[in-house]
């Protein structure tokens, strides 16, 4: 790569509970990590888990000034460890997706004239027209979602334009709520940023544009034209285009850091700021997902990330512009029934032992002799129903399975669902497809074997603690090289590779191809039953 080993790149992540940073050197080795926990290190903001949950339990916000102060504290912590800011060639970063920051009229001038003698949070305290920013955990905008879908011509039509049907946490619906509930604050707002573009604005000392990838999480952007959608803007609030500013490619160099950082911390005047993006897009970069790859995170909830070219937006899941390749897309699907459901079945059928759970997977055949199960202990997001449903090889409902059969039915069901919904969004398994696994359950090789068999693809594991930060440090490196036409993959050719964990067993494709069709039909039927029962109530 072009940069010398003594150069350095920073990736920040303004996440829900903390602000984190990772520094990599010119060889892409991690050389520094640091963080500020909002609850414990900034107790004056009185957050729990980084947020305030309001009385209605639906409204969830965080003080914008807390994020500013966290940056003051983080940079000071770095300086106190002797971190040499003059080596930093470029920075980038990410933010929790969907959250919004409402800058008050005059804030741009303050950003332009930051005084290096003073903390940022002292200078920016009057800069927010709405002090408490709505964040992704907010689910108070059902009415606004309804209005947006109606204005556009329905949920599927909205997904066709913006990549997602209306979601309560998506920024357009949050802005519409502020416009109606706080008209005075809205009229005092000169600029609305996402948390990612707000963070890059702090570094630039000027308003930073919203990048295509994080911009896709707003229900406002046409993800194919990469422009604001006029019909969506008009449905949300008046004069929104000027308040949102222009969009930018996620790989763009936005400019150099403000002199504030040069004079206060010793950054080089030439240190570049590469567009910030959302934390999930940042993780895609950190996991080094490539074209055709699919990443499965098996944590508290399960998440599937896909790299796709010809997306087919649907009323399930989300399509975002790809953060590292402007001509591609990524899909994100969240499943609520992940580890807790696996733990319940482990406790009921394997005496609480992952080892016994694994033995059951080894002792049962691929395809479970036709026994299939759907295990949604809590209301699932995709598809939207709940309950435990078991079926025998003849497709008849049964009340229970033997323990070992139950364990395999759970894991196969979870992975069949992931494949079915990935394919619904346009994903295709081709020769060379890799499945990248991460999260707590990716330490279990027998679970990974089922994943590999169901997807008929090799599974690689990747340690992605701080994947969003690391991904953004990589994006900072790539930002400089992208201008000369280098792809993200070329830039990262020397970074540590994911490790091969398991390959599909012979015959897996023949077993799971027909099971996929059966599972998809079953899920459709269960969803219809659920919708019917809701209607009757
Ligand atoms: P989070 O989403 O909170 O970051 P993690 O990715 O750390 O969660 O995953 C934690 C989960 O990993 C635990 O809840 C546990 O169910 C699961 N886990 C840990 N070890 C194993 C194992 N050997 N087999 C299956 N699941 C495991
Ligand atoms: C994604 C989402 C969350 C946030 C917070 O749609 O809402 O993952 O990005 O991490």
UniProtKB/TrEMBL annotation:
Keywords: ATP-binding, Carbohydrate metabolism, Kinase, Nucleotide-binding, Transferase, Xylose metabolism. It comes from the Eukaryota. SUPFAM superfamilies: Actin-like ATPase domain. It is an enzyme of class 2 (transferase). Residues 135-282 form the Carbohydrate kinase FGGY N-terminal domain. Gene3D superfamilies: 3.30.420.40. The keyword ATP-binding applies. GO terms for biological process: D-xylose metabolic process; xylulose metabolic process. Pfam families: FGGY_C, FGGY_N. InterPro entries: ATPase_NBD (IPR043129), Carb_kinase_FGGY (IPR000577), D-XK_euk (IPR042024), FGGY_C (IPR018485), FGGY_N (IPR018484). This is Xylulose kinase. It comes from Sinocyclocheilus anshuiensis.
């Amino acid at each position: 790569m072009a940069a010398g080993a003594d150069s350095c790149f920073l990736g920040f992540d303004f996440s829900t509970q903390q602000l984190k940073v990772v520094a990599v050197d010119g060889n892409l080795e991690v050389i520094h990590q640091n963080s500020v926990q909002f609850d414990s290190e900034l107790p004056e903001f009185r957050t729990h888990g980084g947020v305030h949950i309001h009385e209605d339990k639906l409204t969830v916000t965080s003080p914008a000034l807390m994020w500013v102060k966290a940056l003051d504290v983080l940079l000071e912590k770095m300086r106190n460890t002797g971190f040499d800011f003059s080596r930093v060639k470029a920075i980038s970063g990410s933010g929790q997706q969907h959250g919004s920051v409402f800058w008050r009229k005059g804030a741009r001038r303050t950003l332009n004239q930051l005084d290096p003698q003073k903390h940022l949070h002292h200078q920016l305290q009057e800069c927010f027209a709405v002090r408490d920013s709505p964040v992704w955990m907010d689910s108070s905008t059902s009415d606004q979602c309804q209005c947006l879908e109606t204005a556009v011509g329905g949920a599927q039509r909205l997904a066709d334009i913006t990549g997602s049907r209306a979601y309560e946490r998506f920024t357009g619906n949050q802005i519409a709520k502020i416009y109606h509930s706080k008209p005075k604050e809205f009229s005092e707002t000169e600029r609305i940023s996402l948390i990612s573009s707000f963070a890059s604005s702090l570094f630039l000392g000027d308003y930073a544009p919203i990048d295509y990838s994080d911009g896709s999480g707003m229900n406002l952007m046409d993800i194919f034209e990469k422009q604001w959608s006029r019909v969506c803007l008009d449905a949300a609030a008046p004069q929104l285009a000027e308040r949102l500013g222009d969009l930018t490619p996620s790989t763009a160099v936005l400019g150099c850091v403000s002199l504030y950082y040069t004079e206060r911390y010793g950054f080089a005047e030439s240190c570049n700021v590469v567009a910030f993006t959302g934390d999930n897009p940042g993780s895609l970069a950190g996991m080094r997902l490539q074209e055709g790859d699919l990443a499965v995170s098996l944590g508290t909830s399960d998440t599937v990330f896909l790299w796709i070219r010809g997306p087919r937006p649907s009323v399930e899941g989300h399509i975002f512009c790809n953060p590292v390749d402007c001509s591609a897309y990524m899909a994100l699907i969240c499943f609520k029934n992940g580890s807790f459901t696996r733990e319940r079945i482990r406790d009921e059928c394997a005496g609480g032992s992952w080892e016994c759970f694994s033995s059951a997977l080894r002792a049962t055949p691929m395809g479970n002799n036709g026994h299939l199960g759907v295990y949604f202990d809590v209301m699932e997001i995709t598809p939207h129903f709940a309950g435990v449903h078991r079926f025998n090889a003849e497709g008849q409902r049964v009340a229970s399975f033997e323990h070992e059969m139950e364990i395999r039915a759970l894991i196969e069901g979870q992975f069949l669902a992931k494949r079915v919904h990935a394919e619904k969004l346009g994903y295709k398994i081709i020769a060379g497809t890799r499945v990248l696994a991460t999260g707590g359950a990716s330490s279990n090789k027998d679970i990974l074997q089922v994943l590999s068999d169901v997807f008929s693809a090799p599974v690689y594991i990747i340690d992605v603690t701080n994947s969003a930060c690391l991904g953004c440090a990589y994006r900072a490196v790539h930002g400089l090289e992208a201008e000369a036409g280098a792809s993200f993959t070329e830039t990262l050719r020397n970074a540590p590779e994911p490790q091969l964990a398991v390959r599909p067993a012979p015959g897996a494709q023949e077993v799971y191809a027909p099971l996929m069709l059966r599972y998809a039909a079953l899920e459709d039927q269960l969803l219809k039953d659920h919708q019917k029962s809701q209607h009757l109530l």
